[in-house]
Amino acid sequence: MSKHAQPSSTRRRLLQAGAAIAASTLAPALQAQGNGRAIRIGYQKSSTLLTILKANGTLEKLLAPSGARISWHEFANGLPLLEALNVGGLDLSADVADTVPVFAQAAGARLTYLAQEAPSPAAQAIIVRADSPIRSVAELKRKKIAVTKAAGVHYLLIATLEKAGLKFSDIEAAYLSPADGRAAFERNNVDAWVTWDPFLAGVQRQTQVRVLADGRGVADYQRYYLAATQFAETNPDVLRVVFDELQKTGQWVKRNPKEAASFLAPLWGLDAATIELANSRRSYDVRAVKPEALGEQQRIADTFFSAGLLPKKIDAASVAIWQPARQG
Question: pTM score, two decimals?
Fold first, then answer.
């Protein structure tokens, strides 16, 4: 971990103590489950909680009794991340927007829901430049809008347009990664940009922009953690460790916003104030996934199918879900 990203001495001692206790408790079960195999974890820049766990080496410490070797793989956004998970290139996925599993499910992916973050609707938004003549969503008709395909902002854009009486076909979509979307936005190559935190906070603090709409009342924006189904079936205790640490880390971020922002700043290459703003709009409330709570997923799937962007109808609840019951 970077010398600039060291946690406080108190937190470091707590992490070390917690790792030692958990390691001694979980060692027998993990030894049986891990068998010394590699555990490949995919993440993206907005994967706050796993970024912290990666920097602290928390999972490496806790899973050491199994002889497991963890490798980390960064992706520009959620869709290629889950594609890699589906084809066997990864074992675990950091949080992706609620839209991404819908596309993976339509493609026949065998993925297992591991956990869900409670809604963070204000953590994504449709923005225009401060000097733009566009003052409402209805005025986006026939405008060029940068959006990342299959990301949560893709659904936000469609749902917000529909609320304003427009169809997705009424606008010109420019499918771009967050980095390319910002470049196009700042160069005036697009009329609006739909993005999420921390990219949203970054552009708000560094450029003169105006928010046309965020997800409140339109898109819940629940982020999901997933695992390759075969890995989930054979490594339940590994998933237990990951789930527990995600919950603890999420609670720490919300209770210590300034310390968390300072910790993440050198890892993300952003200033602490920008990160604190971004984190203030994320719930980081990690919880188990319940089949009966996948209604938003079904609405997302139906919306994409109606817009001709999903190849077939899907049953969003027809998925594998890991249950965090303690093993043994």
Answer: 0.83
Cβ neighbors of 240 (< 8 A, separation 6 or more) are: 26, 324, 326, 327
Tally helices (H) and strands (E) across the chain: 13, 12
Whole-angstrom distance, CA of residue 79 vs CA of residue 84: 9
Beta strands 124-129; 92-96: pairing state: unpaired
**Distances in whole angstroms, Cα of residue 247 to Cα of each of 240, 242, 287, 311:** 11, 9, 7, 35
Q: Look up residue 301 and give its two tokens.
A: 């799937």
Tokens of 98: 């609620």
Position 1 scores a pLDDT of 39
State the pairing for strand pair 172-175/209-214. Answer: unpaired
Give dist(CA 198, CA 46) in Å, integer: 6
pLDDT of residue 324: 80
HSE of 306, CA atoms in CB hemisphere, 13 A: 12
Rounded to whole angstroms, the Cα distance separating 158 from 29 reads 46
**pLDDT tens, residue by residue, 46-93:** 899 999 999 999 999 999 988 889 999 999 888 899 999 999 999 999
d(CA 4, CA 268) in angstroms, rounded, equals 12
CA-based angle 284:96:89, to the nearest 5? 130
Low-confidence ranges of the chain (pLDDT < 50): 1-34, 327-328
The number of beta carbons lying within 10 Å of the beta carbon of residue 71 is: 11
94, 44 in Cβ contact below 8 A? yes
- CA torsion, ordered 153, 154, 159, 163, to nearest 10 deg: 80
What DSSP letter does each residue of 23-65 carry, written as one string? HHHHHHHHHHHHTT-EEEEEE-TT-HHHHHHHHHTHHHHHHGG
Q: How far is CA 50 from CA 53, 137, 198, 203, 248, in A?
A: 5, 34, 15, 23, 11
User: Which tokens go with 150?
Assistant: 């299959």
CA distances from 288 to 22, 50, 262, 312, 323 (A): 20, 17, 29, 27, 7
Tokens 């079936």 belong to 233
